[in-house]
Design goal:
549 residues, monosaccharide binding, 5-stranded parallel β-sheet, 22 helices, EC 5.3.1.9, gluconeogenesis, isomerase, binds 6-O-phosphono-beta-D-fructofuranose, 6-stranded mixed β-sheet, alpha/beta
Length: 549
Amino acid sequence: MNAEGRARLNQMPEWTALAKHREELGEVRLRELFAADPGRGTGYTLQVGDLYVDYSKHLVTDETLRLLRDLAAATDVFGLRDAMFRGEKINVTENRAVLHVALRAARDAVIEVDGENVVPKVHAVLDRMSDFAERVRSGAWTGHTGRRIRNVVNIGIGGSDLGPAMAYEALRPFTDRSLTVRFVSNVDGSDLHEAVRDLDPAETLFIVASKTFTTIETVTNATSARNWLLSGLGAGQEAVARHFVALSTNAEKVAGFGIDPAHMFEFWDWVGGRYSYDSAIGLSLMIAIGPDRFREMLDGFRIVDEHFRNAASEANAPLILGLLGIWYGNFLGAQTHAVLPYSHYLSKFTAYLQQLDMESNGKSVQRDGEPVQWQTGPVVWGTPGTNGQHAYYQLIHQGTKLIPADLIGFVNPVGELDDELKAQHDLLMANLFAQGQALAFGKTAEEVRAEGVPEEQVPHRTFRGNHPTTTILATELTPSVLGQLVALYEHKVFVQGAIWNIDSFDQWGVELGKVLAQRVEPALTEGAEVPGLDPSTAALVAAYRDLRK
Ligand code: F6P
């Protein structure tokens, strides 16, 4: 038993039952599973809002799924879910509620934190954002010299960058094409340089996005951006008000930077950075797509929130996807999970999920501080198909590793494609379906021989198959569908963290590097001695100093 009265995960009978089942099952073959039950292709599917989720190509039987659901029940995943929706402080190490679900709650919903209903605050900020976004889009909001804003540059990092940057790419067909929208995150000055080098400061709005407003990368870039603006305009500090707004929880620091708190769009400590792009952090996206589309996206999130909250475990998509990840990571030894969207517009989706999943579940102590004795979050990786097919799919098909993957595709293309480009969509999707089939069923040596392949080449041209995939299909990539997809992954990550008994909502692992970077910097810039550097790092710093121009 741990401090919360929960038995250790790997001592639970439900865990032991899964381990035994895995042994008894031996090497389960997808070919055999489908031969025994051809109905599996439709039976192991779910419809969640607009998402059709096919999990038939997984190395599981009905019994596996039942045992996994038993584990979810024993670890009280739904109990923690309900505690989250009730606003309880389930982020134990930071003593905070976890309420990204409140960001997309209906106006009349009631979700309380410390006895206060937070939903009216959420909608008040959304209304202010909408008003501001409309003013920028219509030209009513002008810069210091009276010119309308044509460029929007979001400065933020991690959750204050990846979400809006991903969603801006994903929803490009819905954006106002007369606006230039860019995202600066890296403290490498080249990032800001490339973002602003062809922009006119008189027409540029900077959105400084930082929950804490202390993140060194963001504050540094925002300071450089302010200098670029003021020197470009030949103006004084008074120009900042028309060209800088802030998205933050920290009004004091925002004011300290010189941004009028009236131009700060607020969110709250119960919104984790990686769960925040549907909060004020989404302002750049809202300006790009407009408030109505932004609200459609929130509606999409809500569809999946309600599904997660209400669907029975047999039909609960985030639960099932989370459990499949547990099966592979904890019982079949998989270390990674690939997310492979067959959509150019989802080019940043996997990078976004990397933070969502890996910053949430990259933990090795339990909620009570005891070390875990089981694997936790996977390495999440991937790029859009079909590009990946010509790069690393070789390893998935014929390498030695088990790599569960998600294939995400859309029935119809979006945007103003001409007929010829529209027709390419069928080829794109043919690749998705073909990959799912090839990964699952491979090609046997007999099949290869039957094609007349010389015997010495048969082993090289045989595909073992049995690589598991989930296929997620939607009609088209709309704002609502994007919200649904993101919420699906958010809740999947939640399910896994709940089972592993880790705090999915803190991120202490990023702190040490931050502190050390601040300690090392004076050694690079001022040649100061840094006490306590290890010999390797000290030698690197010395080499850097020698070569510095
Ligand atoms: O990398 C750590 C982290 O705190 C992330 O969780 C967060 O999204 C990012 O830094 C940016 O933080 P902030 O929004 O406070 O600038």
